[in-house]
Write a structure and sequence with these properties.
seven-stranded mixed sheet
Length: 314
């Protein structure tokens, strides 16, 4: 099949809060952005039922509806939103080249990367089935719905400790399920968790199944040393075993940390390649919230606009 070619001023890859915000700003600035939505149009928010912490929605909104609102706003200003996945890139020269679905080559003066990150999951059938019905990968997003209830969280790193502590302020009890007899988390985070009376750490433990037909009702936990299984009664089950940035195809060209998060020049969305900008969770392993992603999307569009203006000046 012959490769189709197309030239654009601004290409946006990814379509969560960061991508759509970048699109709104870029299209209002006359950059005529073309956006490819990627594997999960709308990003991680499309598997989030209720979003209650985004400003401007006083009664909350469900994630898919919110992303549809963002999309319509971007399209209203002229963003060309398309289905498709970036399958390879060449950032070695100008213009930047991005291949979509292995058949369309886009030449772009500026590229905004908003490909996000994907939560790592345990891989259980019950986890997938109850995702959004008690199973969540974001305690800060969803912990509020379990006020006064008993919940469980899986993980042993700093994020898991931070989220367990966050949940302990809302929930009556938090079970922390840790695979080994020690944690990976920093000592200060471990101490915080161990000194919180309503957090119970289940050491040497793995989750065999999340219980419940239509919503989480409990979890079956196996002790890897004794082989004994027990059931705990919980209404919320949080998975905090890490995220993986969707950055693999960009890594040969762009600086990234050991986990694959793209590095940007502090205070900007600029990568180490001129004209390529990164925003949202693909470059943020700290906050990972819709509102912070949207903020960096705005930065990326403004940075792209200034970059293009500087080229015209020359």
């Amino acid at each position: 099949m012959e490769t189709q070619k197309e030239k654009v001023k601004c290409l946006i890859i990814g379509s969560g809060p960061a991508g759509y915000t970048a699109a709104i700003y870029a299209s209002r600035a006359g950059l005529k952005p073309v956006m490819y939505q990627g594997l999960q149009p709308g990003g991680q928010l499309t598997i989030t039922n209720d979003v209650e912490n985004y400003p401007g929605y006083p009664t909350g909104i469900n994630g898919p509806q919110m992303m549809e609102d963002f999309k319509q706003q971007a399209e209203r200003f002229g963003t060309d939103v398309r289905y498709g996945i970036a399958t390879s890139v060449d950032f070695s020269g100008k213009p930047h080249r991005v291949t979509i679905d292995e058949q369309t080559e886009i030449e772009a003066d500026t590229v905004i990367l908003a490909t996000g990150a994907s939560a790592k999951w345990l891989g259980l059938e019950s986890e997938a089935r109850l995702n959004g019905s008690g199973v969540s990968a974001c305690a800060v997003c969803d912990g509020f719905f379990y006020r006064g209830q008993e919940v469980a969280i899986v993980g042993a790193g700093d994020t898991a400790c931070e989220e367990a502590h966050y949940l302990s302020n809302l929930c009556s009890k938090v079970y922390m399920i840790v695979r080994r007899d020690e944690m990976r988390a920093s000592q200060i985070m471990q101490n915080r968790v161990k000194n919180t009376p309503n957090i119970e750490i289940l050491w040497n433990s793995v989750t065999e199944e999340i219980l419940g037909e239509h919503a989480v009702e409990g979890a079956k936990i196996k002790n890897t040393v004794t082989g004994e299984t027990t059931e705990i009664k919980v209404t919320g089950f949080f998975v905090a075993i890490g995220h993986e940035p969707n950055s693999k195809i960009f890594q040969p060209y762009l600086e990234h940390d050991e986990s694959g998060y793209l590095k940007t020049i502090p205070g900007t969305s600029k990568t180490n390649v001129d004209g390529v900008f990164a925003c949202g969770d693909v470059q943020d392993n700290v906050y990972r919230q819709a509102v912070t992603a949207a903020g960096t999307g705005c930065m990326a569009a403004l940075d792209a606009e200034r970059y293009l203006a500087s080229l015209e000046d020359h």
